[in-house]
Amino acid sequence: xxxxxxxxxxxxxxxxxxxxxxxxxxxxxxxxxxxxxxxxxxxxxxxxxxxxxxxxxxxxxxxxxxxxxxxxxxxxxxxxxxxxxxxxxxxxxxxxxxxxxxxxxxxxxxxxxxxxxxxxxxxxxxxxxxxxxxxxxxxxxxxxxxxxxxxxxxxxxxxxxxxxxxxxxxxxxxxxxxxxxxxxxxxxxxxxxxxxxxxxxxxxxxxxxxxxxxxxxxxxxxxxxxxxxxxxxxxxxxxxxxxxxxxxxxxxxxxxxxxxxxxxxxxxxxxxxxxxxxxxxxxxxxxxxxxxxxxxxxxxxxxxxxxxxxxxxxxxxxxxxxxxxxxxxxxxxxxxxxxxxxxxxxxxxxxxxxxxxxxxxxxxxxxxxxxxxxxxxxxxxxxxxxxxxxxxxxxxxxxxxxxxxxxxxxxxxxxxxxxxxxxxxxxxxxxxxxxxxxxxxxxxxxxxxxxxxxxxxxxxxxxxxxxxxxxxxxxxxxxxxxxxxxxxxxxxxxxxxxxxxxxxxxxxxxxxxxxxxxxxxxxxxxxxxxxxxxxxxxxxxxxxxxxxxxxxxxxxxxxxxxxxxxxxxxxxxxxxxxxxxxxxxxxxx
Length: 589
Fold this sequence. Notes:
Blueprint: H1 2-15, H2 17-37, H3 50-63, E1 70-71, E2 74-75, H4 82-94, H5 98-123, H6 134-137, H7 140-155, H8 158-163, H9 170-189, H10 193-214, H11 217-233, H12 236-242, H13 245-285, H14 298-305, H15 313-318, H16 325-330, H17 337-354, H18 367-384, H19 389-411, H20 425-432, H21 434-454, H22 461-488, H23 490-502, E3 508-512, H24 518-523, E4 528-530, H25 533-545, E5 551-558, H26 559-564, E6 572-578, E7 581-588
């Protein structure tokens, strides 16, 4: 009797759609809050890239020029303006602070997670080439489980966690591109002409925003993915006619062209050569800024960046049997999500593998596709209460991986201490006990996973990995970020505050031995950067000779670099120290 009551109660919960949606809202809120919002603004901007975006956006609010991005008095044509616009709007709402800088990235990640959840809820059936038709076997539970698991994997992976919590354009690009591709899939599956048209217009709008975020790659990659998908299915003419290319193209141009025209009119060839030439064409065809890497570079990047879920990617892709084209072509469109995600993943991976310049952030837009693929594989395992041989092998590897991570975390202080800006970080990490906590978490994950596997409950391992990853974020990663910030970035912020208080009229600020863009943002002053100390001394003398009156400079740098300038004591005095940095006032007559 007890068993029957419990079974009836459980069935009642699954049949109550309202309760399931309430739980889903709480689930999305929980994982988004942990991944993207919690402690978002509690650490300072991270040199080298984040302050460039933050300051360019701040300049827009000061100058009122929302067309041309500037940093430290120079144009910054690296990226289009959408990320700057969103940051500037956040400044006007929240003030100029770290929260406002990072909020666009965090909100972009939340939007992508939510849209991924809704897509999996509607189309997340077990869909491999050998499983029965979803109409025959899919239950209410199946798509809910797929959506919950998929949303967690979209949000909680190292790559997305890292880029959603910094104020740069990568997460915004990934979100716009990912949501555009999901909107295309909704249009592709829509059964009514009105719904299909609306979703295609959403698709064109989102790829336009992707182009306003990072340039041509925002439209090139989605159309390569869609082209490959259409050609695979073998009906390119029919699908192209559905896509409303003319009105969609006009909408795309209406959104993107105005800024590109205005910035080109303002800066002409300088903008064209810098943005389209250097930052787009040359990055693909040549190695830029020494960011070259071997052809296999993105294999370890994806393995680490999508861990621990990346362990299941080979099995998740292989289960689709994508080489059986005729099988997929005969299936209804609503069952093609796994195939679409596989092509999405493969095209981006191939595109950036071919590109000469390689950076870990480039493959961020394929992470949602990876999450969809793995979530569908887990959905199949949960639905049938068993695991394929490939999944079983992946379970074993995941246990080995958890043990490996535990060992790596315990050993990690030995890899620290090489950065001159944080010379004592290794000692502080050891003293904090964070490595012991992190190691214990992953050993616990390995042990619990092993016990489940021995009890033939492998289909539940995803929950152990998820709980372990969440605990690792809460008890190790976040405290470690605060510790690193106190050592690496806080000293510069402290000296920046002093500079704001003591700077005399027309007194130039010179940073010696390094280029830390955060100093521009936190002082809100132009900074002259000089890498070599001997050149810095000569630079100060030249500027002093041009002045008819005595002149002073504020000089900041690491203490050893300041010493290399060989400044005489009667011309300089130390104003403040914040290890490893020193702030001095240098006088010339």
